[in-house]
Amino acid sequence: MPLNSPTIAGAEFLAKLRELYPPERVLTKRGQLAAYESDGLTVFQSRPMAVVVPNDIEEISATLKLCQTYGVPYVPRGSGTSLSGGCVPHAEGIVIALNRMNRILQVDPLQCTAVVEPGVINLEISKAASHYGLYYAPDPSSQIVCTIGGNLAFNAGGAHCLKYGMTSNHVLGAKVVLPDGEIVMLGDASLEHVGPDLMGMFVGSEGLFGIAVEITVRLLPKPAAFHTVLVGYAGMKAAGDAVAQIVASGLLPGALEIMDSLSMEAATRAVGVEYPVGAKAVLIVELDGTTETVEIEKLQLQRLLEASAATATLVAANAEQRAKIWKGRKSAFSAVGLISPDFLVQDCVVPRTKLGQVLEEIEQLSLESGLRVANVFHAGDGNLHPLILFDGREPGALERAEALSAKIIRLCIQHGGSITGEHGVGMEKREFMPDLFGNSDVEFMRQLRRALDPQEVSNRGKMFPDMEAPSLRLVGLHPLESQGIASRM
What we know:
CATH topology of the largest domain: Alpha-Beta Plaits
Shape: globular
Number of helices: 16
Mean pLDDT: 91
CATH class of the largest domain: Alpha Beta
Strand order of the largest sheet: 15-12-14-13-18-20-16
Structural class: alpha+beta
Distance between the termini: 37 Å
CATH architecture of the largest domain: 2-Layer Sandwich
């Protein structure tokens, strides 16, 4: 029975919710809902009917069964740090806030695993595991606040994903509540699986297949040694070419990151990090592993950097200098707010061999549009994060920024890349799905989703292109401006 009448059926649905939750865990007042209207990409905003705050698996299961009965869409949410509109609520739906489910249930130092609830903060896993000389490898820039449930939904990566992989490489299993409320177990604590990789299907599905309520993750031994180098270059192409040369040599650093002059300026203003004078781009290279291995690899790295077009090289002499280099890199996204009133963050992937060329073409697109673009990204796996700077108070500025963003996305597709590396498709990039996969592939994905969720109540309006909630587009009004919703970031 679909929710056709928000007044009658909606009131009945809310009454049923209040039977499941105490009053303080059912939020319906405008001020209470304000914090849940968008994620980190605040261009897309929508106010939900209600927000519920479950404490356990049984409450989540009962809530999803109720949503199925009334046809009410829901979106699970952690810290809301996603950057694609992935956890923007449906106006006729609810938000299931998972922040209270934040327990680390088990750390097994012998099996090198941990079992955690979805509201656990990424960095807290490493803190809990550190007593055993272990840590959790995926390290998004927002790791001090983002949750493991959100990391799983979007297959988050981080600065060290070149060597250690994405969330999908570190989640072994999960207890999941499917959209109809059924509780199932996907995967297990073993690295050896038999049969279909259902856990692999679930990771990165952006909440379309249900909610992970207990997550088993793989832990790794802490590296014994690090060698971190900050290298200056006269331009982005030279830095990009250096990355290609390092990877082609067979050397596998823990991280390869690039920042341009705008992102360096922002990081300097935000956290006081100093960069080589005159450098238009910097490359951060970090080696890690056993002491013996790092000693050998740093000599190889030194030869590669000397053969590149480097203008300056700074080697972190101690843990404090290393931490400062990474503080500058990980602050870059938020720091850009100090040099621009508004910005759009993009998330595309290109082959490493095309890095230099694509960066040059993005620079040309920036000049043609009259909008500045700050580049800070995971260079090792070609995961670009161009930040398009604009002032939303200027008429048409948002539309120009979106048009440039769309051109960058299509540029990456043309060069054999992808529309997302770790931020997800969400609402922002849905219209580009057929460009990347083709209509028949997208339709197959939709059929798979409907096999588990025929009513599409689970995070409705995300990932798939349709007319219900338009995504990023080249021309015309922003999808939410016609609804009178602010687009200012």
